[in-house]
Amino acid sequence: MKKAAKPWIMNLGMYEAGRPIEEVARELGFESTDDIIKVASNENALGPSPKAVQAMRKAAAKMHLYPDGGAFYLRRKLAGKFSLAPEQIMVANGSNEIIEFIGHVFLAPGDEMIMADRAFAIFRLVGLMFQANVVSVPMKNFKHDLPAMLKAITPRTKVVFIANPNNPTGTRVRNEDLYDFLDRVPEHVVVAMDEAYVELLPAGEQPDLLRYVRGGRRIIVLRTFSKSYGLAGLRVGYALAPAEGIELMQRVRQPFNVSAMALAAAEAALDDAGHLEKTREMVASGLAFFEKHLAALKLPFVPSCANFLLVNVGRGREVFKAMQKEKVIVRPMDGYGLPDHVRISVGLPSENARCIRALAGVLGRKPPEI
Ligand SMILES: Cc1ncc(COP(=O)(O)O)c(C=O)c1O
To answer: Quick one: how far is CA 244 from the chain centroid?
Structure first.
């Protein structure tokens, strides 16, 4: 088969996702999955909103029908929330699918795509999939270096990807710096702003990118229900962009890319402001807990604005493997060129405590008092 494949497919790396609990249990011979915790994929430890669960139960009886491919109700609801027109919104199978749509629509072989060297890995994978020339701009202190990214733009640049807050660093750029960047980006460039974690920021601190969407700028804002809304398993993301951009991406979308169950749950989740607030509180107190105990363990970490922390443990993959034996799944970061680091997602207080104890244990440190 390999000989029949397009030659550049052989050069594509595979994305290393957080390991599922069941897979770790099978591999390490654990009899039960019950006491394994996964703090590896920046999921929402509170689970889905109960309103979403209720909506899914109700939707279950209708699963013999194809979903509404146009996602009419969810788009209408999102349009109301953001004061946009439904034509400025598109729903997808996770925001990852939007990243792929951007590749389909805008990237041809040899086109330049700019990203930060330690930005979300899927940007690079998608760029390479479309044979773009992926330009990686080094981060500064684990943050996007926007002036350097601006300088890297050439007449051949088609797309710039920015994740804000970024995964895996957890950092974000200052709003004024972002606005300054967006105001200076040349007109021929499409800016893809990945805001997967933005709802975790206090409302007053979230950047206002919708004015660029309304102003018809070449911007695509990516959002997801996977993180703050706790629906990662359903795969629902969306794009906010000028209608012309959405119309282009609709052309490369499969007819039923988002399941009816996912649409029903996402709509209900939007109504559950209380769940979002609880999520923000859980994440804020979890981050404070980790910061305190990581400092006590003298482990350097990158201060985070998201629901995870990048921690320098020294020999990240070894620590990841040793923690798995303690039934705690974190994420090694060598794939991001950070062999000393692991990424730890904020969990429930009991999970955070287990994680810190396991980390101290595998590093041979005195167990912290929690
Ligand atoms: C920055 C960023 N963008 C996008 C995604 C993908 O999210 P989704 O589940 O919506 O595909 C993630 C998930 O980890 C992420 O961290």
So the answer is: 25
